[in-house]
Amino acid sequence: MTRVADSPAISVVMAAYNGSGYIAQTIASVLAQSFTDFELIVVDDASTDDTLAQLRTMADPRVIVIASPANGGPVVARNRAFAAARGRYIVGLDQDDLCHPGRFAAQSAYLDAHPGTVLVASAIDLLEAGSIRAHHGPVHTTPALIDWRLQFGNPLAWSSVMFRADIVRAMPEFERPERLYAEDFDFYHRIAPFGAIARIDTALISYRLHPGGASQRYTAKMIASAAQVLATAYAPLFGAQAEATARLVVTHFSDGAPVPDRPTLERLGVIVEAVHQGFCATRAPGAADLAAIMDEYARLWWRMVDASVRSGALSPVAVKTACPPALRRHPRSPRRVASSALIGSMRAMLSRWKAFAL
Q: Fewest CB within a 10 Å sphere: which of 35, 57, 106, 215?
């Protein structure tokens, strides 16, 4: 497709900070797109390495580099990139992730064909230490399933999204600095009232895992900010406890961290079921959507329970009473159940032995 100089179809917005080790590969993946009518706006957030120098060597006229005079953080940099964007569709991309060659073509075609959709993400694969592996999650999604999943945590990778620029330009702001490290999750909640959020169930990006990545370095802040996002939605159900409740849900049910004890698991069972029932009452998903929702509900629940049993915090018997009734018959791997119980019992015995030795 021929690029129209004054009005590209797509604007890619990227914040850059000390990304010299990866950013050239990321930009190369953008320039290799089969859909060529785009601009890439990179805001260097006062990097202290040679990121800006690398950016200034880019000869392709579609790469637009903006140098911030002082470090303001990724949200400020991304907002500045969005303010300069001219495309009708906006692509989110972090400095260390890689786009597959057909990404822009597939997502722009989806938005062209679905005028009621305001944002489309994609499945991802994971890139770690030079190797690609699959990301665990639902294989097939629907907008209703994405909507349900947003009630508990963030199901979408920022680097996988494309959205309609005109919708966001009409909103009071793009990303909010006060939701740092969950600014994308906050954004999805704020754009959702304007139309559907969908996902293409083919991996269109490779999400890089490395020690310097924000998802590894700022987990606690991500959880706190995500809980603040959900607190508004949870307030009618949980009142003054909405934010604390949301933090519990994000930490364990959404992110899969082990639950520390049986009362916490029982409390989570009540909380998650209340949110689920509230969603079904207000959204009224059809039979196919509800089936997909229940599959994901069960996957998240049993992942959390499995992690808790393997940690030694809970026994297999203890988890049965806390399980929401609709999930009790969901199939699980008998071999995984047995291995988790064995590992958990050994860890529990070791913990008791250490306590006795002290």
A: 57
